Amino acid sequence: MSQSYNRGLIEDFGRWREFSAGMWAWVFHKFTGWVLVGYLFTHIAVLSTALTSPEAYTTTIQSLESLLVVRLLEVGLLAVAVFHILNGLRLLFVDLGIGLESQDKSFYASLLLTGAIVIASVPTFLAGVFG
Amino acid sequence: MAERYSSFQRGGRRWLWQRITAAFLVVVLAFHFFLLHFVHHADEVTFAMSQGRMQELTYFSLMILFLLTATFHGVNGVYNALVNQGISGTKKTAAKLVLGVASAVLIVQGVRTALAWAGGVPL
Is A131 an 8 Å CB contact of chain B? Predict the structure, then answer.
């Protein structure tokens, strides 16, 4: 038998002091999801310069990639995407009923692995931007 | 505060499709990042290189499927977030409409761009 209990309004971010690991995972997943869907629209808009001309596309991308702020934003995007992927895998396992007892540990593991992958990727993501 | 809104509908298919697209996107998004940032590098991008990849039917169809699944997963995620936040009635219908139109525009624009690179469907 499934049990339900009153958790209050879940989407009340004002309750953040009461949040446990699973709740933070939910908040981070939602935040990274908003960023990724926003980026998806921006990404297609930028790539659409290919419709103008091959030169317009190449110039646009190369001009953007020459800016340090764009490279830093890409590192941020990587962080957001890696966390969303790793926590998404965690959620798929939770949905399958696998590792429910360790859902807090798998959240911390997602965070640590995201940090490690992002730090290791910084040199590649910033390559060539300093001249 | 006993309200509890859920985007889950008994017998609905959106819940399942959100998970099916998730499983696909986990792999393809990781591949996309790896290919375009580690195998190739951001400052080396040219139209010709993108064109070379898009003229391969396997890559072209993977990218179209990537566009379709990412759009569904992202827009459905936004809709679920709004429903969980408690929107209903006219607001819910309006959200459905706006998100539907936005998805259609994104897909049309993405497919047009892919076709511009490939010079038509690469059969």
Answer: no
Residue A111 clears pLDDT 90, i.e. is over it? yes
Counted domains in chain B: 1
Asked if the Cβ–Cβ distance from A48 to B77 is below 8 Å, we say no
Domain parsing of chain A, residue ranges: 21-126
Confirm whether the ipTM is greater than 0.85. Answer: yes
Burial profile A61-98: b = 16 or more Cβ within 10 angstroms, e = fewer: beebbeeeeebeebbebbbbbbbbbbbbebbeebeeee
Over residues A29-88, the pLDDT tens digits come to 999 999 999 999 999 999 999 999 999 999 999 999 999 999 999 999 999 999 999 999
Q: Do A51 and B46 touch (CB under 8 A)?
A: no
Domain that holds residue B33: 14-118
Secondary structure letter of residue B1 according to DSSP: -
Which CATH number does the domain housing residue B112 bear? 1.20.1300
A 32-71 → B contacts, CB under 8 A: 33-34, 36-37, 40-41, 44-45, 47-48, 50-51, 54-55, 57-58, 61-62, 65-66, 71
pTM as predicted: 0.90
Q: For the domain A21-126, what is the CATH code?
A: 1.20.1300.10
